[in-house]
Amino acid sequence: MATSIHPSESSPPRRRSLAALASALVPGLGQTYVGRRDIGRKLFIIDAVIAGFVLFSLIFLRSDVIKVWVSSGALALLMVMNLAILAYRWLAAADAYYSVPDSGDPKWLTGVGIAAVAVALVVPHLLFGYLIVVQASLIDTVFSSSEPAVVVASSDAAASGDPSADPPGGAGVITSTTIPAQTTTTTEATLWDGLERLNIVLFGADAGEGRSGLRTDTTIVLSIDPSTGNTAMFSVPRDLSNAPLPEGMGIWDCDCFPDLITHLYDGALQNPEAFPGPNTAPINALKGALGEMFGIPIHYYALVTLEGFVDVVDALGGVTMEIPKTIFDDTYPHEDGSIESIEIKEGIRHLNGHEALAYARIRRHSDDFNRMNRQRCVLEAVLEQSSPAEILFRFGAIAEAMKRSLKTDIPQERLADFIDLLPVISTDRIATLRITRTEYKTGSAPGRTYYDIDRIREDAQFLMADPEAAQAELGLDDLDSTCGVTES
Fold first, then answer.
1. How many structural domains compose the chain?
2. Does 372 fall in a domain?
3. In this predicted structure, what is the pLDDT of residue 422?
4. Of 21, 247, 326, 487, which has the fewest CB atoms closer than 10 Å, so is most exposed?
5. What is the pTM of this model?
């Protein structure tokens, strides 16, 4: 007669903590380890479904995954999923643990095993939950909860964003429009609901020592064709004077701002009633002036302070650039208001935030065109060198820097639409119009330069309507070809 043998008599002893750790890492592995193979196989099937869904999403739905990361509602759902998977792993680990009889291991060994299980279970989900919380806080802090109105001149060209129409001449009236709402149609919707051009202005602002407002030392207007990715970049010199204002704005007889455009923010801050619109008076003034200058509606703005730029670059670990020519300034204004001597030497250099800002700002022994060119190149280098892995690793510091220094009226509901733009935009499709070109200048006074606004508007409209023809006729460069050019 055959004698039955108990598993404990034919197999080496199993340890509870090892079984639990195995299933904490891969649910089902601990069950297989203790001999419960049927349960192990079922858990492996669940594991495969979860892993397959994640891999499929990352490979084939990458754009949709990024959109989840910029939606507060989707982030909340992601947190629920994170907790659900944690609970699943915990149940699998607990089941494996209690599947093994108490082997009488020393208490210290059991404690070490339980601690290892707890770390394996909690740490990944805690870190992922932290990223979700930080991202949700960033979205809620920085981005608007509603679509802003757009202040434009009363021109069909400006109101529609159509660069092929006649640009607005002279002053118009203040009108408010909004970007079309998303609608469901029988055909595939185009990016940005068919909007012909999306226009955004980027400001680099210096709060300055002892000043109540800001100086917009860096002003860059981006006009993007969402269907092609063709982008026109207009860098506005800080010393541009007599910037045109739409009708209904300002208090000056010239229908313009008679001071430097870099002082317009403060000018509007001191006369808020003269700059009506959906945003604060300074932003209304800057959007109105730039829209009038280029003949386009300015849909959104983003403003970062100098200190904030330094913090963001430092949070990214710095930026590596090719410096074509050594630049030097022995009276450079530090972000804290002090004066220092700074030198950025020629060659391949890894710059920290302060050095990258100085490279973009220094004006001594250089003209404003070269300075604006450096600003564009620093921005390009930061964007190109910010890998997803690096951003993820430094995400907390980057988010905190952005929360402290970034202001924008881009609404949360439009962040997903910006994700759709990423695949169609590249630096070799960004053409730049140099406002500082000699042919645009009409005169100067101490500390001021006057420009032919009508000609600037005409060339800007030409560049938006036909980038290739405009680049050839006007002698313009794309962004890639302007970086690394030696200053004269």
1. 2
2. no
3. 82
4. 326
5. 0.78
